[in-house]
């Protein structure tokens, strides 16, 4: 079905962190009504299961170890829309946070395709929250920086200025930062941050197999390995990460 006549329309939809109860009402409706839903694995199995089978297209699939190129996803959105279809491009969390939503918006605009952004709860805020970590707190942090821990191996220099972040004093939330945890925790210590600064990692926040590891800048690599944290996971650095241990006994719901 299409609500945009012959031209079709693309919805860039955020699925939230993974538990279907955190889908917005609008996202849930669009998943039911769309002609095509282009998704990868990040929304999680419980949300992907809500998409009618005839509409499901996995664009995160790896052929010979490669991800579907972004150019192919862009093309698929435009082609389906030009056939007059209602297209959902479903993304984990929010479609504008480390999700190529910006690139996709530009591409759609360049090709004259009407689109709409349907925000989702970003894991960068929801993930710490469900683990008992508020990303701001009057006593610990009045600012938050969300950064990528994923670095281009072909680049010599880090794209993230860890030295400036160490000096800034707010909470740091690192996405895509499981593998490079040793590098950036050391960079923060080298830049003068207290090695005792609390750090937490939250894997698969709100999924049934959510896991959390806690420690300090000095100990978190060991804690990551002990718990067996694997992607997708967040790293939360700063005083707020220590709050989890204070509230844990009363924390229910998604907590592991
Ligand atoms: C490509 S980014 C997409 C971020 C997403 N757009 C958002 O707003 O949450 C993928 C990274 O998001 C984080 N992430 C997404 N969902 C998560 C979840 N349920 N639990 C923990 N981390 C998650 C992980 O750091 C993962 O490597």
From TrEMBL:
GO molecular function annotation: uroporphyrin-III C-methyltransferase activity
Species whose genome carries this gene: Halapricum salinum
Superkingdom of this protein's organism: Archaea
Example of a GO biological process term: methylation
Subunit field text: Homodimer.
Taxonomic lineage from the root: Archaea, Methanobacteriati, Methanobacteriota, Stenosarchaea group, Halobacteria
EC number: 2.1.1.107
Domain Tetrapyrrole methylase: 9-220
InterPro entries on file: 4pyrrol_Mease, 4pyrrol_Methylase_sf, 4pyrrole_Mease_sub1, 4pyrrole_Mease_sub2, CobA/CysG_C, Siro_Cobalamin_biosynth, Uropor_MeTrfase_CS
Keywords: Methyltransferase, Porphyrin biosynthesis, S-adenosyl-L-methionine, Transferase
Gene name of the record: cobA
The name this protein goes by in its record: uroporphyrinogen-III C-methyltransferase
Cleavable signal peptide: none
Family matches, as Pfam families: TP_methylase
Keyword Methyltransferase: yes
